[in-house]
Amino acid sequence: MVVTDNLKVSSQCVKAASKASKVLGMIRRQFRILDKSSFMILYKGFIRPRLEYAVQAWSPYLRKDISCLERVQRIATKLVKGLKCLTYEQRLQRLHLTTLEKRRLRGDLIETYKLY
User: Which of 3, 9, 35, 57 is the most buried (most CB within 10 A)?
Assistant: First the structure.
């Protein structure tokens, strides 16, 4: 995790997106076309964990940080055969995924509920 002197999370977002993009590039080189089930295994196992590493500690709140992380998921969902021509929201629906922002909010709500 990256900690800056001003405690901004932008550098952590860039670093997480960079690592996830590198893994996504490796997956893209190895698998030209992915079906839905193969994509979900690879995405949930190798890409999403890098985008969500220690997110409870550095949850991004600036729009530029959120879009930096979402951009990787946008690119990743285009790898699935037959989904490239759809919008991002339609791809997420077909893959039964949510945006990373909604996923973080859900995690925060679950953690808050555990406190009570």
Answer: 9
| Backbone angle region of 82, left / alpha / beta, with phi > 0 → left and psi within -120 to 50 → alpha | left
Residues 6+ apart with CB under 8 A from 94: 36, 80, 83, 86
How far is it between the farthest Cα atoms of the chain?
47
pTM (predicted TM-score) = 0.85
Helix 10-30 crosses helix 63-77 at what angle (to 10 degrees)?
A: 10
Residue length of the chain? 116
CA distance 33 to 72: 18
Residues whose CB falls within 8 Å of the CB of residue 15, separated by 6 or more in sequence, listed in order = 2
Residue 80: beta bridge partners?
Answer: 34
Instruction: Spell out the domain ranges in the chain.
Output: 10-115
